[in-house]
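From the shared-data thread, chain only:
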Amino acid sequence: MKTIGLIGGMSWESTAVYYRLINEAVRRQCGGLHSAEIAMRSLDFVRVVELQQAGKWDDAGRLLGEAGAGLARAGAACVLICTNTMHLVADPVAAMSGVPLIDIIDETAAALRADGRRRPLLLATRYTMEHGFYAQRMARHGIDVVVPDGDDRGLVHDVIFNELCQGQVRDGSRARYLSIVEAARGRGIDSVILGCTEISLLVDPVALPLPGYDSTAIHAAAAVRFALADELERAA
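Structure, as tokens:
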């Protein structure tokens, strides 16, 4: 089993979900008392948020890249950035880490394409919805990402940072997210991407009025496939 490297803490609420999902998948596939080989660097999220707000993406890339390099030195065979937004700096992180970076955008795109989805609604932070990097990457896979209108983007963003990242899960916010999805059905949307790793704490992708894709679960599953590739090949 290869060691999975997690760059987490952004927020730790969703990093804990990664840890659980990865270990549950390893136990299902390997049985018994098996658990995943994981190396984790959990960052102080406030440092990252300050860089985001200041638009200092180069500095953020170096911060995460140094974390990835440390994980590689600790024995990680791959690295995951446990947040969608910080995939804006995925390239420098991969370069500094020196090991494969399992990309949440590529993995989510692959899941959409496998189901024939081409026009998803993206729910995420403002950075992810508005910066352009996410839509551009999805477009390489033939996927046309749609985002909510301006006021709804603000609502989605504020719920993530002011509630979910702080451990608050509110029924009212869930209802407002669902209303945003329902309103998008008339825009030719064929699916919904939970494009922030905390959103699955609030919204069950199975309960959406359109097919839902939880980027956290998709990313964690990709990490397990990488870690167990040799074992699965021998079993086949």
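The beta strands are 4-8, 38-42, 78-81, 120-123, 191-194, 212-214.
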